[in-house]
Write a sequence for this structure.
């Protein structure tokens, strides 16, 4: 699979989403980019700040993207769930780059609830229906179901990419 075709973009406060995004990119041969958050979210005050930013649905300062999403057939956007909302850095990234997205897929990690609400928000913010979605909760991480879930997600994305290539060849 060409590594120019898929970009995995993620934000992670405590490393779980980073781990999943890195594994996914490795399996897909995709490029990967971390959304750079300019806000200190460490410790209890960082947790509360994150909760407030998510609930207020506000944009926050993030670094400029290193990869142009418009250069990729599919961009996988990965976020932790914050208070049943997309994490504020990912919300901000989606607002900034929504017009540069061709196709999207969504990945979220969470403690246990809120994935569907987050997927709906991501679809609204990107203005796109995802070609695939994957949620990985704390239970999946404990019993290693996350490996299987990532496999299924990768298969779907690979099939979608093959379909895209066929269409591009036919045109
Ligand atoms: C501010 C905040 C709010 C959260 N809200 C939820 C929630 O509504 N539902 C849930 O299942 N997990 C929630 N979590 C847990 C995270 O989604 C989960 O631990 C995630 O895997 C963390 O990913 P990360 O390590 O990439 O930051 C919340 C975590 C934070 C920091």
């Amino acid at each position: 699979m060409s590594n120019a075709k898929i970009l995995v973009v993620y934000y992670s406060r405590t490393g779980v989403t980073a781990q999943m995004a890195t594994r996914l990119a490795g399996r897909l041969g995709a490029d990967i980019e971390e959304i750079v958050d300019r806000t200190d979210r460490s410790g209890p005050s960082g947790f509360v700040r994150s909760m407030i930013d998510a609930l207020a649905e506000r944009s926050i300062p993030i670094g400029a993207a290193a990869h142009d999403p418009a250069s990729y057939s599919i961009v996988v956007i990965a976020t932790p769930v914050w208070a049943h909302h997309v994490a504020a850095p990912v919300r901000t990234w989606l607002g900034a780059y929504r017009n540069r997205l061709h196709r999207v897929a969504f990945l979220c990690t969470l403690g246990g609830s809120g994935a569907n609400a987050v997927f709906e928000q991501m679809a609204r913010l990107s203005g796109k229906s995802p070609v695939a979605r994957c949620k990985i909760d704390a239970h999946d991480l404990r019993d290693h179901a996350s490996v299987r879930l990532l496999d299924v997600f990768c298969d779907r994305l690979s099939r979608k990419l093959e379909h895209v290539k066929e269409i591009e060849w036919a045109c």
Observations:
- The mean pLDDT is 93.
- The chain has one domain: 6-170.
- The longest helix spans residues 145-170.
